[in-house]
Design goal:
By secondary structure, the protein is α/β, with parallel strands linked by helices. Helices cover 39% and strands 18% of the residues. The protein has helices at 2-11, 28-36, 47-53, 74-77, 90-102, 126-135, 159-179, 197-202, 212-215, and strands at residues 18-22, 41-44, 62-65, 81-87, 107-112, 144-150, 188-190, 207-210. Strands 7-6-5-4-3-2-1-8 form an eight-stranded parallel beta sheet. Helix 3 links the parallel strand 2 and strand 3. The chain is globular. The mean pLDDT is 96. The structure holds pyridoxal-5'-phosphate (PLP).
């Protein structure tokens, strides 16, 4: 079932777009089945789940943290995480920097943008993203590496609205690239979930986060 879902979803995703299999709330057995089917990148949204699942999987499994991250949970996930999608404040970024330094690691991250009229209240507004360069420069935080932007579209059936949200995210992503011209590694635009990932890809997504259409019956 999971294998069939993965094959179907991968067939719809062009080369150059990375699939994150969002395994939150799903048991290790489901993750193992996806791994057997060739999937290597998994997304979790709770620190307490990630730190149980990650050590139980083969070491070439990659873990992305996609949920709201509390500063007091940062230390626990640092050993396992390959990319944090959900950096929504400079305070959180400073904490990740401190903990990554302590672990002698460099951690890749995305700023989370908030454009959608959805219930999630996390993420930086377009205005806050525009003001970032005056508040933060990569040299300030040598143990983290900015790789791009993550965002969500409004939770609606209105496809025009979804498309407009993704285009706004794409604009913010390009603004971020221009804001940090010497940082050439800003190459990840993480947007698109089970219901809207094909629209997101049309709008320029380079990384989709798909959960329920892989793991649910
Ligand atoms: C749960 C979640 C997803 C996956 O959503 P599905 O609709 O199950 O594909 C993607 N991104 C984030 C941030 C999530 O919390």
């Amino acid at each position: 079932m999971i294998t069939d879902n993965l094959i179907r979803i991968k067939a719809g995703i062009p080369e150059g777009v990375t699939l994150v299999a969002v395994s939150k709330y799903h048991p290790l057995s489901a993750i193992q089945e996806a791994y057997q089917a060739g999937q290597r990148i998994f997304g979790e949204s709770r620190a307490q789940d990630l730190i149980i699942k990650a050590p139980a999987m083969p070491s070439d499994t990659k873990w992305h943290f996609i949920g709201h991250l509390q500063t007091n949970k940062v230390r626990s996930i640092i050993p396992y995480v390959d990319l944090i999608h959900s950096v929504d404040s400079l305070h959180l970024l400073q904490t990740i920097e401190r903990e990554a330094a302590r672990a002698d690691k460099i951690v890749d991250f995305l700023f989370q943008a908030h454009v959608a009229m959805e219930e999630t209240k996390f993420g930086l507004s377009q205005q806050e993203l525009a003001e970032l360069p005056s508040k933060w420069q990569p040299v300030d935080t040598p143990h983290v590496r900015l790789r791009g932007l993550m965002g969500m579209a409004s939770n609606t059936d209105d496809e025009r609205r979804i498309r407009a949200d993704f285009m706004a995210l794409k604009d913010s992503f390009q603004m971020l690239q221009k804001s940090y011209p010497s940082n050439t590694q800003i190459d990840i635009l993480s947007m698109g979930m089970s219901d809207d990932h094909l629209i997101a890809i049309e709008c320029g997504s380079t990384m989709v986060r798909v959960g329920s259409s892989i793991f649910s019956a």
